[in-house]
Amino acid sequence: MTLSIRTWARAVLALALSAVLLAVTGCAAGLGGPASSRTAQDGVIRFTFAPDPIWDYMNETGVVAQWERDTGYRIETSATWDEFGLFAGGHADIISTASFEVPGLEEQTRRETVIIGRYNAERSRILVRANDPAQTLADLKGKRLGVFTTVSGTLVWSALVKQMHDAQLVDGDYQIIVADIQNLSNLLARGEIDACICYPDLSARELRDGSVRPLYDGKSSADLFAELNAPGHDGPMGNVFVGRKDWVDAHPGEVSAFLDLWDRGLAEWRAHRDEMIERYPQHFAVATPEDIAFMKAYVAEHDWVVDEVRFDPKWATDESSVFDLMRATGVIGDDVTDPKFLPTEGVQP
């Protein structure tokens, strides 16, 4: 299946509006901080993001308030899964989405954008039942593969499957079953599907009790992409920070301060990761003490959050190479162009 830019954009928008997981989070309450006034003002950053534990932690511990006092800027937040809709209406200056969905965002919203920061890697894994002898997706041709959408991380896996096994994921060598993202690993454990593109933080119980296991030594799509196409790279990104290009160009101080704030957030994550999982278990789709303990250990070994929000030109080039792979494997059409990046690593305001 080859997606044109318009088809891809419509699919991406449908995904955004379906309120599925796109961030580090589960299915929980919204962002802390004041609600956005929706009207652009100098010195105010209108930030729209899906529910997120790091952001909630920074608000509840006073980090955001201190940042506002120190910088003189104010950040207004809107907690919503409909980030695309607010962006299209001009009511958000910065949102977050997967890097490989940015061209669809531009096409659907008709707004020129630029990627200003990175946040977390595309973390989905291929899971099978524990007693399944399959070693790779090549062993699962003809089987039922559960996905929560045919875009998002499925785009990356489609390109990787073609590259690794010369197989076609969607409309090809597998029976694609679209199901609720939070139920995929349970469907797998019950035998209603044979494999899934699943997020580990939504599969904690089944991974912990051993009813399912990951293929490819537990590597995510980002891990495999880097291994095969961009050694040392930490993407492709499940979430980057994307700004309206006209706003970014006109507000370099706000952009730099925003990135500083998120660098502080990433540092808080590294220092207080276990506390955040305990404090916001809903963001990780865990509830029992056993699942919370499992998630702590899992994230310690497979942390998908990056160490630094800023990036340099080489990182941007490596991140863009996912589009080269998707075009070369026929997953997207040649009319899908790379997103624009604003490298700021080492640059002062």
TrEMBL record:
Residues 1-28 form the signal peptide. Residues 120-275 form the SsuA/THI5-like domain. It holds the Pfam family NMT1. GO terms for cellular component: periplasmic space. It is found in: Periplasm. Keywords: Signal. Its main location: periplasm. Transmembrane segments: none annotated. PANTHER family: ALIPHATIC SULFONATES-BINDING PROTEIN-RELATED, TAURINE-BINDING PERIPLASMIC PROTEIN. Belongs to the bacterial solute-binding protein SsuA/TauA family. This is Nitrate ABC transporter substrate-binding protein. It comes from Mycolicibacterium obuense.
